[in-house]
Amino acid sequence: MTYSLVALTEDHLAEMSVIEQSCHHSPMSSATLASCFGHLYRVEGVMTDGKLLGFSIVQQVIDEVTLMDICVAPSAQGLGLGKRLLTSLVAQAKALNAVVIMLEVRQSNLSAISLYKTAGFVETSRRKGYYPTDIGYEDAILMDLSV
Q: Where does the source fall among the domains of life (predicted)?
């Protein structure tokens, strides 16, 4: 299969919302996703045969980039698409003179943590008991990558 990275528009919101709902314990609403198409944001998707398989959303303010979301449909996980999205957003951040990319991730999201560590992100702090779970709360791990 051939995968392509493309800039997404609001026309992709329905597909993004389906992927978001299927991947996250506390997914962003469609309205929140729609708000990520402002001038400070970059939204990129990975597609094959006209079908959206995953996306990333970053916000850049001057030289700081925040990875707001990276999400790959469950049926396409394990194909390296998250890595492709992450590699692309890091390259874009460098090209736009960013000095740091910041993110937060649930402590239970081991595959995402592994992806970020492999890309060079380091844990900078934690928000104790930040994310609700079915049985309580879990920490948010804050990570940075100097670019």
A: Bacteria
Closest CA to 105 of 38, 45, 26, 50: 26
Give 16-69 pLDDT, tens digit per residue: 999 999 998 889 999 999 999 999 999 999 999 999 999 999 999 999 999 999
Annotated binding-site members: 109
Residue numbers in the known binding site for acetyl-CoA are 109
- The residue among 71, 45, 46, 69 whose CA lies nearest residue 59 is 69
State the total domains in the chain: 1
* Residue 15, token pair as written in the block: 């597909």
Beta bridge pairs of residue 7? 44
pLDDT tens digit string along 83-111? 999 999 999 999 999 999 999 999 999 99
pTM for the structure as a whole: 0.94
Q: Which of 20, 44, 116, 138 is catalytic?
A: 116
Please provide the distance, in angstroms rounded to a whole number, between the alpha carbons at the two ends of the chain.
31
* 104 classed as catalytic: yes
Domain ranges, residue 99: 4-146
110 in Cβ contact with 30 (< 8 Å): no
